[in-house]
Amino acid sequence: MKHFKFIAIMFIFFIGLLGMFSTTNVNAANTNDHYLANIKKKGTLVMGTSPDYPPYEFLGNKDGQNEVEGADVQLGQKIAKDMGVKLQVKSMGFDSLLVGLQTNKVDMVIAGLNKTPQRAKSVSFSNSYYKSGTGLIINKDDKNKIKDYHDLKGKAVGAQVGSVQYDSIKKLSGVSTKGMENANDLIMALKSNKISAVAMDQSVAQAYANHNSGIVTIPSGLHSGDSDNNIAFSKGANSLVQSANKTITNLQKDNQYTNKFIPTAINEMPNNKNQSTVNSMWQYKDFFISGIENTILISVISVIFGIILGVIFALMRLSHNWLLHAVAVCYIEFIRGTPQLVQIMFVYFGLGAVVNVPALTAGIVAISINSGAYVAEIIRSGITSISVGQNEAALSLGLSSKQSMRYIVLPQAFKNIWPALGNELVTLIKDSSLASVIGVGELMYQMRAVQADTYKGVAPIAIIMVIYFIITFTISRMMKYFEGKFNHGTND
Fold it and tell me: Which CATH class is domain 285-491?
């Protein structure tokens, strides 16, 4: 009977999740005819992009703040202007952009995106605003060895996952394809000889080569990698597509995107090629400080709510009430059985489609929920480690069960599990980096911003490694200090 009840609770739980998404999709479908009117009503057009693709989109440094710039941003501003609204740019991972569009986090996606039959099933595309070719980036030392794609046989070639170039390289016989999400990671892999070449958009390839010593760009010879760049909108958002197409048609009359937007973007790109690593990193100290602030903010709030959730669900799991016990087991096992990155994306894109949740709030909520499941098990083990006799003694002295748990059992349990809670806090601080996938400006996100702005791949990584170590080492020493206080008090 107990097993049947448990299965029933799990079934209801998953049906609830599916129902949530069904509601979201229905609501989206019912507003298809009012997209442009809704944009004009709110006065803002939200553009989603992945700012690691210069000169189309990249993070620039203005007055100590990172700001998304590039040819695609200029295009977005022109489209918004023609609609009579302001443009707001949201940064997120390339593979999260279409999800953000489908869950109404953004109104359009401009990110050097190519229209494919698979993508067209989920979103609507504008007309092409720019036709791009494919270039190869290679190390200067290989200039005489690699002339085009014919010389790649037997070698490893990198490309951004989901790009047309990635699909083209995969079709080459005898070539090993290495896919990565971030263009900066591809450049680092090339310079460290992990791969022999990088295939990417010709303009992007030239931008990286111009700002990185030791690498050059050559024609790929891959005409199958040439592609049209399109703007993506929610499926059925015909009014937005038509408005964007009008802007694109006007821009194409004098080829403004190629002759104006791209040259302007290239001029905006910082040139740190001949600058020392120390000087270039020091200029971005405000980025790292901002990342530290957000990382600590996420960690502190998440650990507080994690402990609160942990106590609640630990007591629920120890409860003799089958319903409370089943709910706690479902929560703990489900959260511990799914990746935290997926949970963060679910809260932001999934629940956020029903209730508009800012990225920082979504990150805190998801990390708190995740931490709560692990803390619940830690607390449960601490409670069960306390002798049953102590609880019985408390009851014999006239204390109620709640008073016994509050004043006798929990204080001793927390003393026993203090080291485990310290480990959970350290893990939580490091896991806060996963929130960067939804655009939260913590340390990992700021590292990406510095990489994109300086074209230096390893130095920003080394800096945040040191920062994470300082934070976690300090926390570990503090937890050790209080642990000693607890033990000293017990010995007294």
Answer: mainly alpha
